[in-house]
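DM from R.C. (forwarded with permission)

"hey, sorry to bug you on a friday — could you get me a structure for this? deadline for the figure draft is monday and I only need the backbone to look sensible"
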Amino acid sequence: MTHSSDPQVCVVIPTYNRADLLRRQLTELTRQRLAPERFEVVVADDGSSDHTAEVVRSFSGRLRIGYHFQEDLGFRAAAARNGGARMATAPLLVFLDTGVLIGPDFLAEHLAEHQGEEQGGEDGPAGGRGSRGDRLVLGYTYGYNPYQPFPGLAEALAAAEPEEVVRAHGHEPGFQDLRARELAGFGEDLDLGRLAAPWMAVWALNMSLPTEAFHAVGGFDEDYRSWGGEDLEFGYRVHRHGMPIALSRRAWAVESPHERDLDANRASNCANAWRLWERHPEPVMELYGAMYSRNHYDPPLEYEYRRLLEWTEKARGTDVREEVAALVARPLPDGRRPARVVVLGAGGAHGGLPGGPSYTLVDFDERLLADVPAADGAATVHAVGLRTVLESGSADLVVLTSRLRGLWERWSGDLLAEAGRLGGTVRVAFGENPGDAGDATGAAAAAAAADGGRP
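My reply, with the result:
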């Protein structure tokens, strides 16, 4: 196929041993109303041993198509996507997983979402949607529900084009995008800026963003070598980079059913849950790790994170210096005075604390920690306390303050387990006998956490 102009869109398709699904997908790309010279395709092969390469070559006369191959060293979808993106010459990237089928307006709609165009033919009249700027667009994806597949979807897609299947079943709840429940009420084109954690909606199976922006945030994290989490981690960096995230119903696709090892994927997703926290040790990732490492998805992270943000505002005026001072002043069970004290829920506690120990102040309110004078000599850690960057056994005394009261019913087990990991003696400044919570060794605190998380 000869090329007379520079493409505007590059479609990157990561794949592994799904040649027949890929053939159908590439066929759908030949039906695009967007002129073929306006887009390119890169198939990013994660080491397939089937006839994937032959399928790609068979489309060389119908598509502007490239092929990136990497050795099969296990699951490396992140590296495959990055390799495909490096081959792009177009200013806009569209990521599309193998087997995600599209209608004839798919690429024109993704392009319009970034150019402010109304889709309408080869050139597309400009200005219909207004200037959008750099943003990550998530295409609404029907049919993606591995654990409860839509009945008859494979047969429907085998008998009809994707747009016909959408016309027939798009109104049925079991066929709709799984994200729709959380995003209900956000309008036709869903501006996720009103969500506390919009990155949780980022699925790489159908999404687009400017090529320069993709490289500016660092692409996908290639340390992800098993299924689950790399697209959310990418979305989090996009969000932190200040780029808006939107869900477009116009740039829709249909995820076709295919064989999956659901048990292995679930286990891998759990194992990868704390990796996001390791990359970004922040309060929201503590919640994510604690929930997803246990397959706890209901209520969703958006709900739990909003609760944390609301409690952060409510607890901002709670001064815990007196309760911390009272518990630090008491000798340890062996009669010694604590030399290393970690305070979970410290707020802006400084001044008025007993002299002698070195203090590490841990709190979920970054604003209060920023007010702790450097001259105090206390280390500060921005965390809830479900998991911290502190080393095991780094404390003689761990104090959990009343600033944690609003989080206690939901997270006491995790808080006590982390306090127990930090070691020494654990004291809780509230409960049935506030100010006289009693002592527990780190091991006892961890045992209490395992037994229901009560002090």
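R.C.: lifesaver. The chain has three domains: 9-260, 269-314, 321-450.
me: no worries. Confidence is low (pLDDT under 50) at residues 118-131, 451-455.
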